[in-house]
User: Which sequence fits this backbone?
């Protein structure tokens, strides 16, 4: 599980973003695991997800029908399993987007409430 | 060795011994009378054997680059990447210093006492060998310890033809520590130190960083040398052009790279990919 701990110990869990992130990357362009791991870092450099975790997610997502794979041979390198999104995967991605939009609104409400309280001087650091 | 024309002949890296055998048992469920001839060595030794005329139906190696360097395009069209791994330092509870060693002081433990024996495999025969040399080069940079590579390279006690031999030597008490694949350490139920991703050759995100490490080995022609550049570990499999059992070989590869093979690889400490 990818957890970002703040200085004072509050955990922010990011593991629920692994599957939607992979679906989005594969929806953008069919890709193999090696490439997806490299691009996963580019999307969120603060999140550390081990390569093994991403490979396991890909296998699980394929067995659940969200993605499908075929062997893709590159000119210079070896053949690697390349993943593309399925209709079921696209529906799951859209569902994730709806949930994320809902969560985004909740986070925005949370931040607005916090800032308003802070401006009113409700908090003082000891 | 006398060979059976009808047997399925598999040549593989020593580190893949256990998962390959388990995949054969799945093939036997469909073909109970199928004869299988298994042979194994360091991956470069395997590839050189095929290049020198050894006829096999499947060749599974610990580095796809060995296919590219020695077998493609003359003997193999392409190889298929099916698993990844990482380098670790394996030992057991009887290894000298096993109570003190950790992922910060491992180099000091190995180099600190003259009686500690540590081993690597032969970089000329086995990817685990050149990956160990790469790990040492990267460790020198990562830990900012100038001279560490030379110290480690000048003080190993034993050199083995393939990585699985290191594990066996550890079990027999011939050495205290060995630079090994995580999968082999897990299969042999050994203790191990995990290295940071910057030096363990496991992470594609660090491919450029790994590429700073370079090992020179003998080339394909006498007197010629070639450089092997550091890269994430990737195991690969292929059907040689001169296979006599191409359909059966493909069935085996379908098992190895399919859901059953993935479960076997996973259980054996490899990461199917």
Assistant:
């Amino acid at each position: 599980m990818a957890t970002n701990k703040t200085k004072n110990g509050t955990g922010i869990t990011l593991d629920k973003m692994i599957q939607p992130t992979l679906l989005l990357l594969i929806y953008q362009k069919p890709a193999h695991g090696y490439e997806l791991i490299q691009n996963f870092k580019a999307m969120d450099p603060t999140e550390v997800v081990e390569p093994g975790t991403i490979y396991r997610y890909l296998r699980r997502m394929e067995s659940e029908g969200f993605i499908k794979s075929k062997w893709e041979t590159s000119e210079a390198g070896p053949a690697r399993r390349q993943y593309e999104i399925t209709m079921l995967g696209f529906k799951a991605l859209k569902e994730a987007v709806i949930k994320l939009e809902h969560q985004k609104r909740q986070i925005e409400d949370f931040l607005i409430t916090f800032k308003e309280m802070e401006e009113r001087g409700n908090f003082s650091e000891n | 060795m006398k060979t059976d024309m009808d047997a399925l002949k598999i040549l593989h890296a020593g580190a893949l011994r256990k998962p390959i055998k388990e995949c054969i048992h799945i093939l036997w469920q469909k073909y109970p009378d199928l004869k299988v001839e298994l042979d194994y060595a360091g991956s470069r030794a395997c590839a050189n054997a095929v290049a020198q005329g050894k006829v096999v139906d499947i060749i599974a190696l610990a580095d796809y680059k060995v296919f590219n360097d020695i077998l493609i395009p003359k003997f193999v069209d392409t190889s298929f990447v099916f698993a990844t791994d990482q380098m670790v330092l394996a030992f057991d509870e009887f290894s000298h210093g096993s109570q003190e060693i950790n992922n910060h002081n491992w180099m000091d433990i190995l180099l600190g006492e003259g009686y500690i024996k540590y081993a690597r495999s032969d970089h000329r025969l086995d990817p685990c060998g050149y990956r160990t040399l790469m790990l040492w080069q990267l460790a020198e940079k990562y830990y900012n310890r100038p001279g560490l590579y030379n110290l480690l390279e000048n003080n190993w006690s034993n050199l083995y033809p393939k990585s699985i031999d290191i594990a066996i030597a550890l079990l027999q008490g011939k050495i205290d520590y060995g630079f090994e694949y995580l999968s082999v350490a897990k299969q042999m139920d050994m203790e191990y130190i995990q290295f940071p991703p910057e030096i363990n050759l496991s992470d594609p995100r660090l491919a450029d960083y790994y590429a700073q490490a370079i090992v020179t080995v003998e080339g394909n022609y006498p007197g010629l040398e070639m450089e092997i550049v550091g890269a994430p570990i990737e195991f690969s499999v292929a059907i040689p052009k001169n296979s006599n059992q191409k359909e059966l070989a493909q069935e085996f590869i379908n098992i190895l790279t399919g859901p059953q093979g993935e479960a076997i690889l996973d259980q054996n400490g490899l990461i199917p990919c």
Notes: Chain A has one domain: 3-94. Chain A has four helices and five strands.
